[in-house]
Amino acid sequence: MSGGGQALSQAEAFARIRLLRSPNVGPVSYAQLLHRFGSAEAALEVLPDIVSRGGGKYRPADKARIEDEIAAVKRLGARYLFHDGADYPALLAQLDSPPPILTVRGDTGLFARPSVAVVGARNASAGAVKLSREFALGLAEMGHAVISGLARGIDTAAHRGALAGMAQGGGTIGVIAGGIDVVYPPENAELQDEVARRGLLVAEMPPGTEPLARHFPHRNRIIAGLATGTVVVEAAPKSGSLITARLAGEAGREVMAVPGSPLDSRSHGCNQLIRDGAILVQNAQDVAELLQGFTGSPRSTFREALAPVYTAVPDAELESDPADIAGLLGTAPVSIDEIVRQSGASAGAVQTALLELELAGRLQRHAGGRVSLVQG
């Protein structure tokens, strides 16, 4: 298991995995617990007491289950990266609330390469598939790590193109929505294995997790967060690829799109991105020139107020005495700021109360810093 910038003991690494896999612990509560109690080992000790105050009984994830997971990761030749580790990808760590733990298989040195995400439609046209492959081949030959999601269509072509061009120092990173050992779609089993052997495979979900619809926005956020810029080759309006592009824009990264015919609905998403401020690109050289010497100030003006997949961890310190806020909450999402205003309590006391309710399974967190009681 990979540790933090300072050496992470095996016991603490085990405890971190167990904490994140425990019931009702998400990225926000995980970060709050680590910050408040100093270690995952200490947080696990107090979880039952915290939850009892929130009105429930609590048992952390079973140790045997975590031991089985770790054994499965080792069998696969994979390993864990923790959010504060020296080998955790630097660009991803810049996000407001990065994934606390990643499972990776392959060459993590690719995280240090200049990086470009290439994404697009699953039901892509033949021309767009060819273009995606050529973009990725050219970028890999120029030393870039090409990042995509191992989906059908554009993603598959991008990975294949990058694998063909990696002799020049580039490579490819595949980010998947399920566990590191789960292949989706099934026909990409051979490709996924090749990406893991010759490039790098990245997963946020535990081994054995089948990809569900709710996992893909998180996968898309990792793709956007790992890359200096995102290129959308072909996409229909409201597609997952446009979500990735918007997330890249929100993270202050470059957003690029390949124009297409207005007669093909699969081009409408890219044309819309360009209209909204994404940079028009037509070949790998355009992309490389745009990203060369990127300093964090993108030329693209594409921005859209998009609620984050993960609510950013508030600055407020947790307090020992939680605020009495149950009467202010309902099943309709409300902002945490509004709860603080209406309760008259400190932000820290409100955060403590929310944490207790979440761990007890009574609170649901929504995008944009909003919360609600769990229905039923």
From TrEMBL:
SUPFAM superfamilies found in the cross-reference section:
MCP/YpsA-like
What the entry lists under InterPro entries is as follows: DprA, DprA_WH, DrpA_SLOG, WH-like_DNA-bd_sf
In the record, what lineage is assigned to the organism producing the protein? Bacteria, Pseudomonadati, Pseudomonadota, Alphaproteobacteria, Sphingomonadales
The record's comment on protein family reads: Belongs to the DprA/Smf family.
Query: From which source organism is this entry?
Result: Novosphingobium cyanobacteriorum
> What name is this protein filed under?
DNA-processing protein DprA
A Pfam family this protein belongs to?
A: WHD_DprA
| Domain Smf/DprA SLOG: residue ranges | 80-291
DprA winged helix domain location is 313-369
Q: Which gene encodes it?
A: dprA
